[in-house]
Amino acid sequence: MVSSEALKPSNMSENNFRKGPHAAKNRKAKDVEVIDAAVSNADERKTVILDEDLEGVEFDDKVWLYWSRNKNFIISMVVLAFAIVVGVQGWKMYQVKKADSLAAAFEAVSGVEGLENFAKQNSGTALAGVVLLEVADKAYKAGEYERAAKIYNQAVSELGSSVLKGRALLGAAVCEYSIDSQKGILALKSIYGDVEVAQGYRAQAGYLYALGLSNSGKTGEAKAIMKELAGNPANGAFASMAQQAMLTM
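Structure (tokenized):
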């Protein structure tokens, strides 16, 4: 027969049965004290918990300990990430609003003088460069080559890496040719050899460069350039025009 003493839990078993809702918390606090002491003795400068510091500690305790040690850093990273997202979205909205305002202001502009003033007031924008192209074109058509060349060069600065930069360079070179053919030929040659200029504008510059050489009596050099242009399908219409031009040289 089993005695009543046999049914009585041992001290260890009785302690397990007596665990209340705060038992895990008390155990966690003790584990933290032990780990804190070990980490502190190993290196007082540690700010991040290493894997070897958490050996033998349950997963939920590891998470709790990591959070207690690094919560300020984690929170600051979250706040920083949030600020970056908000900042990027805010910048995009600002750019859209700015572009809309710029377009509205451009629509209200009239006359050459108004266009020039608009370009000055909005210097540093691609739209200012486009406006300057229009002003320069008007000056060129009026035979004001020096003024047109100056405005085309201003447009080059405003357009930066825009594809229309080649258009402004070409305009300035043609104006230069109208003032001094030799300087104009050199300017056209420079554009033709500039790989950063859009292919269409390079082809046009090459074609005009070859015509300039031909007009100055350098027929052999002119034919060589026309042959280059004609042999490159990427030159589009200027390839065909160069092919026809060679037949008349």
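The chain has three domains: 23-108, 112-179, 181-249. Confidence is low (pLDDT under 50) at residues 1-29, 38-50, 90-95.
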